[in-house]
């Protein structure tokens, strides 16, 4: 699960750096919209990148409107990984 | 050949409802493309576009954030005339669960097969669309984008690469398309949005409305804002070559939009001038536009279009009129 968390945070950082190149890390309590300046297409890019990296598409089961922070995303993908039996 | 998910070719009759009295125009083309795309998105699900929903059951719809129309010379959009039957082909792919890229092709009936890789790349009208699924109603969250619940859309093939339109959209949102340098013909045209012509009661404007607003504003600029103005008859010789629009916001009934336009007229390059049989390509137009919600000055859409004025050789007076227009208003 640690690896899922690390991958989610690295993908979020990758997209967030498109707005602010000086960012070096994202924190669990960062608000995607307010702290990282995410717009809707940014969230969609993160979902696409994570589907490709982890083979998981949790948004088919959970509405994106419930996602506000980095932690929300991490939890969503950790839960999807556990449900699918992904150990990494 | 079996059904390829995401690819759909429909035979469409151009009639009074979609082509008016003359023939295909850019707005009608965009709507036909979006219609076939809508059918491709839900094919095999037993649903309509209106019945796509997210995991919570909230309705979603695919919203364009970019369209690109390409009409390569010597093709003329209006050559597809009212009462003609045409093929409209669309190939939709997904990037993740929320983003779509589609490409479309319009050709004479029977010209397009269900194998989209065999669609002609020249001599036909082509359309590209970049979209995201968004909430039809406010969801209460920070983001309007969402993923359709399984089974509410067709099983679309994934894109091999991240769409380049995502970066282009970000660049356009940051920089616009006009920049500091305006063409010799430039101005702001302000207009109110009208029920019926521009939108329907209680609804935001449909994506193709922005092309309509751009066209109306461009004609207003050429017919009313410059001296000497262009002869209205000459506008009928102007043909679209390509236009890319980015959609960044929307408007509703009663709001006003301000369209900032910059038009650069130049002599038609030799290759393009000779491409239209029996006609003379006199003038190229490069038209850049930014549409704002007038009160907030919020950028709603950008457009970059290339056009050409093509006149039948027999219309010598019109050719000379256009040359005179070019001499007066041409140049960067």
Provide a quick synopsis of the model.
The complex is a heterodimer of chains A (88) and B (332). Chain A is mostly helical. Chain A has helices spanning 2-16, 40-54, 70-84.
Question: How would you describe what is shown here?
Answer:
- The complex is a heterodimer of chains A (88) and B (332).
- Chain A has 88 residues and is mainly α.
- Chain A is 51% helix and 0% strand.
- Chain A has 3 helices and no strands.
- In chain A, helix 1 runs antiparallel to helix 2.
- The longest helix of chain A is centred in the N-terminal third of the chain and has 15 residues, at 2-16.
- With 332 residues, chain B is of the alpha+beta class.
- Helices cover 22% and strands 33% of the residues of chain B.
- Chain B is built from 7 helices and 10 strands.
- A 10-stranded antiparallel beta sheet of chain B has the order 1-3-4-5-2-7-10-9-8-6, sandwiched between helices.
- The longest helix of chain B has 19 residues, at 207-225.
- Chain B is globular and about 60 Å long.
- The model of chain B has no long low-confidence stretch (mean pLDDT 93).
- The interface between A and B is medium-sized, with 28 and 29 residues.
Itemize the secondary structure elements and their pairings.
The complex is a heterodimer of chains A (88) and B (332).
Chain A: H1 2-16, H2 40-54, H3 70-84
Chain B: E1 7-13, H1 16-19, H2 26-42, E2 60-70, E3 85-95, E4 99-108, E5 125-135, H3 165-175, E6 185-192, H4 207-225, H5 232-235, E7 238-247, E8 256-267, H6 270-273, E9 279-293, E10 298-312, H7 316-329
Helix pairs in contact in B: 2-4
